[in-house]
Here is the input.
Amino acid sequence: MTATMYYDADADPNELAGTRIAVLGYGSQGHAHALNLRDSGFDVCVGLPEASVSREAARAEGLRVLSPAEACAEAGVIVVLTPDTGQRALYDASIRPHLAAGDLLVFAHGFNIRYGLIEPPAGVDVTLVAPKGPGHLVRSTFVAGQGVPCLMAVHQDATGRARSRTLAYARGIGGTRAGVLTTTFAEETETDLFGEQAVLCGGVSSLVKAGFETLVAAGYQPELAYFEVMHELKLIVDLMYRGGLSYMRYSVSDTAEYGDYVSGPRVIDDRVRATMRQLLDAIRDGSFAQRWIAENDAGRPYFDREREAERAHPIEDVGAQLRSRMRWLDAQTVPSPRSAEAGPAAVAGAAGERS
Here is the structure.
């Protein structure tokens, strides 16, 4: 089956002419969407709580800032770009009371629709535009005249124009410059969560830590272990990004390529593949979502405990010391406490929370 891709020529910005767009959230994705839409000539306002630390940042960019309820009341397009776990409450308090027939409700991740936490009324269009990259890239590539590829899905087409209006939105943030791939809310949600857990976040971080711990336990210098399993990872991923696995293997030494073939299947063996299938099953049957919702309802005790434990891992201290000496590197540290509306930056969707 050939995927359907849309580009600039397929998207008519006039589909949203004269329609005010309310962007709820001003974190990783929110700021990028709002600024790109504004620069594309759309009428944009930003909905943020009175206590939000992002209000001044949005105003400094010349954007109109209202409360979420006020923004929704005057908009024909409402874009939900806040963390997954707070969207249900936001919808009940500020979005649902102001939805009118013919409105367009846009998400950047399908979590709350896929798992039935939000059930919009029949008279509104419900769609998804999910950039496959963090918000800072959505913004910087747009400014450079490029774009980040996006996924697009239509959950509910009440007006008969849901697809064309959503394409106009995707064009407004620069997505159709790079290409917009059609999907469904279920497919986007399930593949996004699986990618985060099995590969992009859970898989990679656990693999890096295990490699670091194995080398250090065998008596090798922690700094050398860091360079081997963490620092060089970016170099390898960049090669994959540019030309796939074959280009990465072409670019490394024959010894590294041979090690790939003989050792990779021993690390990622049938037991690991079985675990991956179990992760996917939990995503598809909703048990992961139920566990995550229950964790939030309980005040995030496990989440907070694990976050602190992971930040205290020796690889973090070693890495921070080494990165601080790399003057050419834009080294970053995690602010604490993290802004509630900022949320984690989405990676390729990693993102599930794109605020």
The chain is about 55% helix and 10% strand. The beta strands are 5-6, 20-24, 43-47, 64-66, 77-80, 104-107, 125-131, 150-156, 180-182. The first helix runs from residue 28 to 39.
